[in-house]
Amino acid sequence: MKISKIAKLVKDNGCVQLIQVDVLKMYIGTGGAIYATEDLPLISGAEQARAVLDLTKKQMENIQVVEDAGTINCIAPLGLNMKADDKEIIEWEVKRIPAAAVVDGEIVDVLELEDGEVLLFNSAYLLPLKEEQQSPYFKLKAREAMTRQKYIVAYDGLFIKAVIMPMKVDVKYFEQLDNFVNAMNKVRPVDVMNKIRPVGAEESGT
């Protein structure tokens, strides 16, 4: 887990959530994602948060500190279940679409659920998990919060390392996307494959 990357997200979003679940587990939230920080001590207050995230006092002046008490099984304020071995919760397998979009200047990854539903999320929220993503056991899944909103869970083996909230996209974005697609269709090559001479065609006389 890259704490420096979490600190950057905290600075960019102007928010840090200090969430204690049970008596031993600590999570740090950035406003759009929550990370399990097993290697860190329990954190309380702005000064401890500043020290752990290695931020200056000047930087902390622009950051809102929110302290939440979670339950054993979930983070109560958001209704996000962080328990990996909860057999009662429904999970969906997701497929990461090999393309990205840009929403309000942010690079957005696209996940497709088994039923065809699509979730968009800020790809920057995966940066603290750079080391975990090298693991063959790293995977993303989708869950449903108590509010019925789906969210993304990042697994490394049997352990949940982070939860990420999907982005909400308004109608204006889809209008802009339609305009982009229409513009690209005007420059789409016309069946260029038919113009490519097969390899070896000259030698064979075809």
Structure description:
21% of the residues lie in helices and 35% in strands. It contains five helices and twelve strands. A ten-stranded mixed beta sheet has the order 4-1-2-3-12-11-10-7-8-9. A two-stranded antiparallel sheet has the order 5-6. The longest helix is centred in the last third of the chain and has 16 residues, at 171-186.
How would the blueprint of this fold be written?
Elements: H1 3-13, E1 15-21, E2 25-29, E3 33-36, H2 45-53, H3 57-60, E4 64-70, E5 74-75, E6 80-81, E7 91-103, E8 106-113, E9 118-122, E10 138-144, E11 150-156, E12 159-164, H4 171-186, H5 201-204
Parallel strand pairs: 1-4
Antiparallel strand pairs: 1-2, 2-3, 3-12, 5-6, 7-8, 7-10, 8-9, 10-11, 11-12
Feature tags:
single chain, 206 residues, alpha+beta, 2 domains, ten-stranded mixed β-sheet, two-stranded antiparallel ribbon, 21% helix
Task: Give a short overview.
This protein has 206 residues and is α+β, with helices and mostly antiparallel strands.
Number of DSSP-assigned strands: 12
Give helix and strand order, one letter per element, not per position. Answer: HEEEHHEEEEEEEEEHH
Largest sheet: 10 strands, mixed
Spatial ordering of strands, largest sheet: 4-1-2-3-12-11-10-7-8-9
Rg over CA atoms: 22 Å
Count up the helices.
5
Average pLDDT metric: 81
Low-confidence stretches: 192-206
Q: Tell me what portion of residues adopts beta-strand conformation.
A: 35-45%
User: How many domains comprise the coordinates?
Assistant: 2
Q: What coarse outline follows from CA principal-axis ratios?
A: globular
Fraction of residues in helices?
Answer: 10-25%
Structural class by sheet pairing and helices: alpha+beta
How far from one another are the termini? 58 Å
